[in-house]
Request: fold
Amino acid sequence: MRLTRAFQKVHKLCQASAENILNKFQPNLMIAIGGGGYVPARILRSFLKRSSSPNIPIQAIGLSLYESLPSADPSAPATPVEAPATEVTRTQWLDLSSISMANLVGKNILIVDEVDDTRTTLEYAVRELEKDVEAARQKLRGEGNANFSIFVLHNKDKPKKGHLPRDMIDEGRYLAAETVGDVWICYPWEATDIDEHDKLAASQIKP
Reply:
């Protein structure tokens, strides 16, 4: 089964979540996981903007989750395809040389992604970003670690392979705009025919 979401729906999910994010997380910085986190992060920034306050900056990281699936030809090597697995590969990371360490240490940082599927990517992102912030804190001899929180458009209601810090869950620093079943989700930024995509999305709206 496929769940198709139009851009308008994504926009409204971000809008509906913004007040909760401001009240609970009060982010100073957003880190979008590419490529699915880019669009939600940019939409959120508009709704998180408050008068007399600057826009919340957005940084980007790229993570891929791969597994090797066997080829139909037994003599051919396994072909890596993108699919939920256990091994995370960095394709892009924070350029710590261009970011003031003071913008990380002791700040509220919101990690944004499109979907929480197996949770493996989110686990990796939180763990590695916490390491970077701790290294920056020690270098600056600063006080206080960064306070990480997570926003995803969709959480798939399924057993997770990855795990988030217990305090993050207990303190409500994880927010999913919508919880769905274990279905394939089609987002508008992945579409090659946006008109057909929107037709499919409209056909799935319950009357």
